[in-house]
Design brief:
12 helices; 43% helix
């Protein structure tokens, strides 16, 4: 584990720069993210915007037939306040903000979406769903229990639904890098990076059958960040489903990384370890703020780190031999 940076972020929620802790066995990741951090800082910083914030748990029920199932679903969707009274018995912070459903024959896939304060919220939303289940079955005797988890959440699996409906923090990061900075610090041009993003990240991922994903290696930065900050590392599965977008703007490079499924928290399981607490304090994510603010700040630093690594790798891959040379020099 090493601290990399400083990474500079600008935006409404975070306007600061910090050293970012990364834990990895892939040692070239540190200097690569570091290069991206230096370039983006010289460019004025990474603008970060939190688009959405929610954690989901899907439960599975069944009825005798589809008509009875539809009647219950329509009624449940109109009773959000009643449902939240039950949710409040399970947590001070969980709040139900939406319900999405799919029906297959007589089966109801009920996707419950919550805000969860500064926790990533896995256990919080499952506990809330566990409290809701008996209430639902009492209110709607035509329904029966099937499972507390229906795979429509969709937890730690690569699916389209999470990108469409959102699971975790939805963060967009952006930076504009001058042509001169691209040439001097990245040894490439804006045009080469844009072209590679189209041909590698977009077309290449399309050929591979990727699911709502077009990036070079989001998972590398996510794993390193998650391990360093006490997150559930299995969530890099959906977390790495993100999109890189690049344009040439008046000769300069506009570069963006969109991460719709960042599942991170500043409190909860895994956060009691000394090194984790130290790293969260380093990132300014243990301050006295309104519920949820520290977790959103953590997601912003995570997304900015992903952009730094993605920018550096794509720049390297525009030059024949650079990627392998760096691995030979820094890893072996």
């Amino acid at each position: 584990m090493r601290n990399v940076g400083p990474v500079k972020v600008i935006g409404d929620e975070v306007d600061d720069e910090v050293m970012v802790p990364l834990a990895t066995y892939e040692s070239p990741l540190w200097p690569s993210v570091g290069r991206g951090a230096r370039v983006t800082k010289l460019a004025g910083g990474i603008r970060a915007t939190v688009i959405d914030d929610r954690m989901s748990r899907s439960i599975l029920l069944e009825a005798e037939h589809a008509g009875a199932a539809l009647q219950a679903v329509n009624s449940l969707k109109s009773r959000l306040n009643d449902l939240n009274e039950v949710v409040a018995q399970s947590s001070r912070f969980a709040r139900l903000i939406g319900i999405n459903t799919q029906m297959v024959a007589n089966l109801i896939y009920l996707r419950l979406e919550f805000t969860t304060g500064d926790a990533s919220g896995h256990n919080m939303v499952t506990n809330a769903a566990d409290r809701l289940f008996p209430w639902i079955l009492e209110q709607y005797p035509q329904l029966r229990y099937v499972s507390i988890s229906a795979n429509y959440c969709s937890d730690k699996k690569a699916t389209a639904v999470n990108g469409i409906l959102g699971r975790g923090k939805y963060v967009v990061t952006e930076v504009t890098i001058s042509r001169d900075l691209c040439l001097r610090r990245l040894s490439t041009t804006p045009e080469k990076i844009v072209e590679l993003n189209i041909k590698k990240n977009l077309i290449g991922t399309l050929l591979a059958g990727g699911v709502r994903s077009a990036n070079a290696h989001f998972a590398n930065m996510l794993l390193a960040f998650y391990l360093a900050t006490g997150q559930d590392a299995a969530n890099i599965v959906e977390g790495s489903q993100g999109i890189v977008h690049a344009e040439v703007r008046e000769g300069d490079l506009y570069f963006s990384a969109t991460l719709p499924n960042l599942i991170v928290g500043s409190v909860g399981n895994g956060k009691g370890l000394d090194f984790v607490e130290k790293n969260l304090r380093l990132l300014g994510c243990k301050e006295e703020r309104e519920p949820g603010a520290n977790a959103r700040r953590l997601a912003i630093w995570c997304a900015a780190t992903v952009l730094c690594g993605e920018l550096s790798l794509l720049a390297a891959q525009t030059n024949p031999g650079e990627l392998m040379q760096s691995h030979l020099a820094m890893e072996r």
